[in-house]
Write a structure and sequence with these properties.
Helices cover about 30% and strands about 25% of the residues. By secondary structure, it is α/β, with parallel strands linked by helices. The protein has a single domain, classed as Spore Coat Polysaccharide Biosynthesis Protein SpsA, Chain A (Alpha-Beta Complex), CATH 3.90.550.10. Helix 8 packs across helix 9 (about 245-250) and helix 10 crosses helix 11 (about 290-305). The longest helix is centred in the C-terminal third of the chain and has 14 residues, at about 290-305. It is globular, with a radius of gyration of 20 Å. The N and C termini lie far apart (about 50 Å). The chain binds 1-O-phosphono-alpha-D-glucopyranose.
Length: about 300
């Protein structure tokens, strides 16, 4: 391993590629970026940001496009709103608005001039990241590790711990049905040791019969800065885009990269049904809404003639 490899050092910086057009959620995304779609009361991006902060990141790099101001506005200070809430004595709401980012955490915005793919988006963050391991979080993938009101470590925190201990890059994976391999990066690995296994191959969106396994990449990565050099020479791949997956495949020849089966549940909020599922599950487990949501859900199912066991 080169001295610049991932691991040993704790990650401090996280990259959020948010330049996508979100066409799947049109017409809503005509004016609201998909990262700002809410799950109950918080936008998708907030969940990913909180996960990064919990993992120890204090520098958040948003790779955005020149038309998307909502994400930057959201993390900016809202002077007028804060003044109004303060004057009205609405302290609880004021705290919510102020703590979108905790003190000591900074948000940096980088523009991706052209939509050339995820790999290209990550490369745009290079000047801010420099020569240290970093995280990439795709906010579409909402992951939480909470069961019956008990909060476990977030996926990225788990990965940062593994990365630091193993001195390696780490990529989150989960099993998917074989007919879904064409929607994901798919990895082949050595035998797993607990939740982790060394990746031997990674392919972007292979057809089911060409997929080396059914272990799919989920949008959480802890990467060695070496990835930037590799991205610079990565040619367009699947879908004609510069793929992060292809640069990771090149990284495998130089440094260890681990696949990590995280603890927690992942919701694919890049799809309609995933967003709905995340909303329902969040409401069912919500500290205030839970009872009401559970009742409402059973009533709705009963009304539709669907029994709970179906
Ligand atoms: C991206 C990655 C893919 C990964 C997926 C996870 O694809 O390119 O390897 O499996 O995120 O959500 P996208 O969903 O942006 O097409």
């Amino acid at each position: 391993m080169t001295p610049a490899s991932a691991g040993s050092r704790r990650i401090r910086k996280a990259v959020f590629p948010v330049a996508g057009l979100g066409t799947r959620f049109l017409p809503a995304t005509k004016t609201v970026p998909k990262e700002m779609l809410p799950i109950v009361d918080r936008p998708l991006i907030q969940y990913a940001v909180d996960e990064a902060i919990e993992a120890g990141c204090d520098t958040l790099v948003f790779v955005t496009n020149r038309y998307k101001h909502a994400v930057a506005d959201y993390f900016d200070k809202a002077y007028e709103l804060e003044q109004k809430l303060e004057r009205a004595g609405k302290t609880e709401q004021l705290e919510l608005v102020r703590h979108v980012l905790p003190e000591g955490v900074r948000a940096i915005f980088v523009t991706q001039a052209e939509a050339l793919g995820l790999g290209h988006a990550v490369l745009c963050a290079k000047p801010v990241i420099g020569d240290e391991p970093f995280a990439v979080l795709l906010p579409d993938d909402l992951i939480w590790n909470r069961r019956d009101g008990v909060q476990g470590d977030g996926a990225l925190k788990q990965m940062a711990d593994v990365s630091q201990a193993a001195n390696a890059s780490v990529i989150a994976i989960q099993d998917v049905p074989r007919d879904k391999t064409g929607s994901y990066g798919i990895v082949a690995t050595e035998a797993f040791d607990g939740r982790q296994g060394r990746i031997t191959r990674i392919v972007e969106k292979p057809a089911p019969d060409a997929a080396p396994s059914t272990l799919a990449v989920v949008g959480r990565y802890v990467l060695s800065p070496r990835i930037f050099d590799l991205l610079e020479t990565t040619r367009p791949g699947a879908g004609g885009e510069i793929q992060l997956t292809d640069a990771i495949q090149a990284l495998l020849a130089e440094e260890p990269v681990l696949a990590y089966r995280f603890q927690g549940t992942r919701f694919d909020c890049g799809t309609h049904i995933g967003l709905v599922e995340a909303t329902i599950r969040h409401a069912l487990d919500h500290e205030i809404l839970s009872d009401q949501a559970r009742r409402m859900m059973s009533e709705a199912l009963a009304e539709m003639g669907v029994s709970d066991s179906e």
